Amino acid sequence: MNETTVRKVYDRYANFYNLMFSRALDQGRKRAIREMNIQPGEKIIEIGVGTGLSFRHYNQYSHSVSLTGIDLSDKMLEKARHTAVGFKKIEIDLMLANGENTSYHDSTFDRVVLMYVYSVTPDPEKMLREAFRICKDSGSVHIINHFSNFNGNGMTLSERLLSRHSHRIGFRSHFPYSKYITGFGLEVASVKSANLFGLTKIIHLPKAKNPHILSQQ
Length: 217
Known about the structure:
This protein is of the alpha/beta class. The chain has a single domain (3-215), classed as Rossmann fold. Helices cover 32% and strands 23% of the residues. The chain has helices at residues 3-13, 17-35, 55-58, 74-84, 124-133, 157-163, 166-169, 177-180, and strands at residues 43-47, 65-71, 90-96, 109-115, 135-146, 190-194, 200-206. A seven-stranded mixed β-sheet has the order 3-2-1-4-5-7-6. α3 links the parallel β1 (43-47) and β2 (65-71). The longest helix has 19 residues, at 17-35. Residues 154-170 have low confidence and may be disordered.
């Protein structure tokens, strides 16, 4: 996959993305945002904000939340802009941007959230480094994503079939935890399961425990 392919796929998804992925993946969104325990004054960025399906879960906090959302697809962001109008308690700033290479300064955000985008981006390692770069030293990166081989099992039949068509469906069905988490030597604070059969993992990565990521090339 490359940037152009991902943009085209998700521009095409925009009109029916909510129908396909709202309910199916919503438990993961809700649980991840709740467990972040966002404090007043913290700045959050969601990379791959899509159509804004996560917004209502940030609204669960009693205090105002400052949320920046970026996405590669302008058509997905157009949907997100309409969604954002309904949440007056959340300060939402939406921008068209590539999560692998943003224009934000180092150490800008308290929480960097990769919500169902880590297996979508053309270069997951590059996005991971960018997430840690823009995260404050006292902050954390939160990955919410499907991972295959989480317990050391081989590929499922569906993963094998879908893996041949990643450029068409816009994500990698075969996305090994052993490669994209432990393979990068990440120090994980916690892993929680969510969604159908617990296939989604919610991973909490404190920046202070992962300084080596920024030096990897």
